[in-house]
Amino acid sequence: MADSTALSRLILETKAMKLTLLPDLGGSVGGLSYKTQDILRPFARTADESPLQTGGFPLFPFSGRISEGRFVWNGHAVSLAPNFLPEPHAIHGQAWHAAWQVAEHGSDHARLVFDYRPGDWPWAYRAEQYFTLRDDGLDLTLRLTNHGEDSMPAGLGWHPYFPRMDARVTVPVDRVWTSDEGMIPNRLDVPAAGADVSEWRVVDELDLDNAFTVSDRLSCIEWPSRNLRVEMVSDAVLGHMVIYTPKGQDFFCVEPVSHAPDAVNSQHPAELTGLHSLAPGETLSARISLTIREA
Predict the structure, then answer these.
(1) pTM above the 0.85 mark?
(2) Which helix (H) or strand (E) is 187 found in, with range?
(3) What is the DSSP letter of 6?
(4) Which of 10, 16, 210, 273 is deepest in the core (most CB within 10 A)?
(5) Domains and CATH numbers, the chain
(6) pLDDT for 253-279, tens place per residue?
(7) Which of 199, 208, 210, 207 shows the shortest CA–CA distance to 176?
(8) Residues 6+ apart with CB under 8 A from 95
(9) How far is CA 2 from the centre of its chain?
């Protein structure tokens, strides 16, 4: 049976899989395991709890950074408060800083909902996550609905943290967003040899914090010492992948997202950046599936 506690910890299980959800902590994942082996980084409680310490969290209604939190949409200037100090930028939207509601759940599935009322982001919206466990993996559907009165810029994504160990990865990267200076990339280039993960690469040999376009839906992660592989398939709407492999850490991230960093300020067309415009009442949705294979 699924179990929730006063700490809003919701546990879903199948015979082989276990998923812990933390609705109050940004709708985050507290852990995902296969036959007791961690597939996502387990959450360890601290005095200063943050979604950045979890196994993953949702990105709504945009992913990545918006330069200094400012952009103009349909002639209206928008200014967002910085939410990742000391950086001056706005990052990943509002949903990861908010408490989510458990709209429904069973032993192997749950739907989490976050309703945003207009603030510095001037559009009301609903964000949803629908988790379904299989005996060999997890399906996650993300949904974003514009509840405002005007069209709004829209994007979504997921920010999972994988345990590093001896992991290696292959992601069908096509091009990488780069910049001449600062943290806001605005140019598409062919990945340099050190950033090309289209063939198997050992995570410990990478030093990446980059957004890529991808040419295919399948990315793979494996841990040879554990004889485990994760096959991650993302819907075509998630046409970008952020790869983060910080040196000296025990985790890394492979993040399916719908658009380029700072897409609302980009001079590139939406067909390239992946930015969506949602009309009132319109919904953007995407699915991510993780399938676990034993070598």
Answers:
(1) yes
(2) strand 187-189
(3) T
(4) 273
(5) 10-294 (2.70.98.10)
(6) 999 999 999 999 999 999 999 999 999
(7) 210
(8) 26, 27, 58, 59, 60, 61, 114, 116, 127
(9) 24
